[in-house]
Design brief:
- The structure holds two protein chains of two kinds.
- Chain A is of the alpha/beta class.
- Chain A contains seven helices and eleven strands.
- The radius of gyration of chain A is 17 Å and the shape is globular.
- Chain A starts with a strand and ends with a strand.
- Chain B is of the alpha+beta class.
- Chain B contains twelve helices and seven strands.
- In chain B, the strands form two sheets. Chain B has a five-stranded mixed β-sheet with strand order 2-4-5-7-6. In chain B, strands 1-3 form a two-stranded antiparallel ribbon.
- In chain B, a hairpin with a 3-residue loop joins strand 4 and strand 5.
- Classes of the chains: A alpha/beta, B alpha+beta.
- Chain A: It comes from Drancourtella massiliensis.
Chain lengths: 224, 411
């Protein structure tokens, strides 16, 4: 299988000497195309730092992040930015929706910012898959938490990224809604052939993933 | 290419028309000026008091028409344009204008041709890039140098992006084929491993029975064991057949619109007898609206999955307990919870129970019949319905027993 995402001895240290904090230590991760991988860890285990490095949002102290065999940090900032907005999608715990524009505009916003025209049929398909078709003209803050996260998922899927990174996507949702949102996420990435890497502290949610990685004190291990 | 030429010709013709029109207008305006000048000269010639006439000309338009002017000037010997200095200037101006127009037009044509040439070159370059990309895919190198591309220039066209997606797709198909092959291999290994033990047991039982010194009681006992082992072997084989069919794609789930309620009822009916023997109640809690809920499902296999779940619940629960099925409609998924009051599952084994041929080591598990196939098959079937199956850890922490959560999309 093709390894879409790989890390080599990825490390991130903060501070130095006595105060050195090892947020991520020698992480060697292999993620295959089309996989749904959950990275589980308690708060403070370094999981968000790890995800930020995987997505090119944060630079490592040492080690490499290879997406499709290429070290993403060997490129100039501009090229990395283009790469990120075309090939990587992000979903956050806090949804990060723009509150002054409606649901549809939120969903197609990143496509517009990339100077592209949204493929309306494709985006509508996503919208239907996520059950948002009746909410398109609503403003985000008129929606429930679960619905807002669906909008955020739709927005991440709409630009057809290869990899989707989700950072505690259900952190703000109750447990039944969480289950459903994860099921939706899984269904969508399967449907559109994307790879999903999800960070969570909730082991129940991680069960649904194809593979579970556990991060503890900055060390990553596979759960078998 | 023809379209390209046609566009080029259209551009040239349009350019010509515009230039010609502008030139004609300038020439006409010059001619007018020339005529007016001549007219004023003619009036001066006719006038008795030229100084007075100059003031008249400055104040008002001359009322002489072209022919009159020509007649008057003709009388003085100015018959041709060239004869007067005014005419020569007019002709010179015409020449300059025409020359300028021609130069302008030629310049424009040159630009058009240059554009065409450059466009052609660009197109060639681009199709070469695309062709190279396709060639790479054909040669088995599915990745395009996207990053190099992004660094080189923030390009408008997305051919490479698209090619990259195509490459990814081809690669995924290839990997999938590879993986299927690998899975079939492991399946064969797993199955032979699973069959070895019961066959060996059967064999030893049979060996004992061949011994003629056995007492009647002993013989009866071993015959009974043989029968039992045959039965469980039969069940195992049946389960294995299901699994192999599922894995090799011989079972294809055919999702058609159907009433999920009927499927749940059918599954309950199928485990009812077994539950009653153990004095286990099966309760169903569902909203009224659920009876009419229609969703895409394969009734036979989804029923099989639910039977596996219910069968487990009954199997691993002590007599006198209750198995509860709770069904509720969420925003896009139907959520079915199957809760029992049985032995439960240890936290660290949550994800393992859905693995193929996994069985718990606990003695409560080992004493029951089973091949570690049921939950695996259930997961496969439910995933085939684009749904999920998991254990509800939060509930299980508080209460005794297991809670399985099945989610199936209903739209």
């Amino acid at each position: 299988m093709d390894k879409i995402l790989r890390t080599e001895n990825l490390c991130k240290y903060y501070g130095s000497g006595e105060n050195e904090v090892r947020a991520v230590q020698n992480a060697n991760i292999d993620i295959q195309k089309g996989e749904f991988v959950a990275i589980v860890g308690k708060s403070g285990s370094g999981k968000s730092t790890l995800l930020h490095m995987l997505g090119g949002l944060d630079t490592p102290t040492s080690g490499k992040v290879l997406i499709r065999g290429k070290d993403i940090f060997s490129y100039k900032e501009d090229a990395l930015a283009v790469f990120r907005r075309r090939k990587i999608g992000f979903i956050f715990q806090s949804f990060n929706l723009v509150s002054s524009i409606n649901v549809w505009e939120n969903i197609v916003l990143p496509i517009g910012l990339d100077g592209r025209k949204a493929d309306e049929a494709f985006v509508m398909d996503i919208v239907k898959t996520l059950g948002l078709e009746k909410k398109l003209h609503n403003l985000p803050n008129t929606l429930s938490g679960g619905q807002q996260q669906r909008v955020a998922i739709a927005r991440a899927l709409a630009s057809r990224p290869d990899i989707l990174f989700a950072d505690e996507p259900t952190g703000n949702l109750d447990s039944r809604t969480s289950d459903e949102v994860i099921a939706l996420l899984k269904m969508s990435v399967e449907k559109y052939g994307q790879t999903l890497v999800m960070i969570t502290h909730d082991e129940d949610i991680a069960q649904i993933a194809d593979r579970i990685l556990v991060i503890e004190d900055g060390k990553v291990e596979e759960l078998r | 290419m023809k379209k390209e030429t046609r566009r080029c010709i259209t551009e040239l013709v349009l350019g010509f028309l515009v230039t010609a029109a502008v030139t004609a207008m300038i020439l006409f305006w010059q001619y007018e000026t020339y005529q007016e000048n001549l007219a004023s000269r003619a009036r001066l010639l006719l006038a008795e008091n030229p100084a007075e006439e100059v003031f008249q000309i400055l104040k008002e338009d001359g009322d002489l028409n072209t022919e009159e002017v020509q007649d008057i000037l003709g009388d003085y010997g100015y018959e041709h344009v060239r004869d007067s200095l005014e005419g020569q200037r007019f002709l010179r101006n015409c020449g300059w204008t025409a020359g300028g127009a021609v130069a302008l037009y030629l310049g424009y044509a040159a630009v058009v041709f240059y554009e065409k040439h450059r466009h052609k070159k660009e197109m060639e370059e681009q199709s070469k890039k695309a062709a190279d990309g396709i060639a790479r895919i054909r040669e088995g190198d599915y990745r395009q140098d996207l990053m190099d591309w992004y660094e080189e220039e923030e390009s408008e066209d997305r051919i490479l992006d698209e090619l990259d997606s195509l490459g990814n797709y081809v690669e995924m198909m290839e990997a999938q084929a590879q993986q299927e092959k690998q899975e079939t291999k492991t399946l064969v290994t797993d199955i032979s491993h699973q069959l070895k033990t019961p066959v060996a047991a059967l064999n030893s039982c049979f060996e004992v029975l061949k011994n003629e010194d056995l007492t009647k009681d002993e013989r009866r006992e071993f015959e009974g064991r043989l029968e039992e082992q045959m039965q469980s072997l039969g069940q195992l084989v049946e389960a294995l057949v299901n699994i192999s069919r599922m894995e090799t794609g011989m079972i294809e789930l055919k999702l058609t619109e159907g009433r999920i309620f009927d499927v749940i009822l059918e599954a309950v009916n199928r485990v009812w007898v077994k539950a009653q023997k153990k004095e286990i109640e099966i309760e169903m809690e569902a909203e009224d609206k659920l009876e009419d809920l229609i969703l895409p499902l394969d009734s036979k296999w989804l029923c099989e999955a639910l039977i596996n779940l219910l069968d487990n619940a009954v199997k691993y629960s002590p007599p006198g307990t209750t198995v509860t099925i709770h069904a509720a409609r969420m925003a896009s998924f139907l959520r079915i919870e199957i809760q029992d009051q049985g032995i439960g599952i240890a936290r660290e084994n949550y994800h393992k129970v859905f693995q193929r041929f996994y069985r718990g080591d606990e003695k409560e598990v080992q004493k029951e019949e089973g091949s570690g196939v049921g939950l695996y098959l259930a997961r496969k079937i439910i995933e085939g319905h684009h749904g999920t199956i998991s254990l509800d850890g939060k509930k299980m922490k508080k209460e005794k027993g297991s809670v399985f959560v099945v989610q199936i999309p209903y739209r």
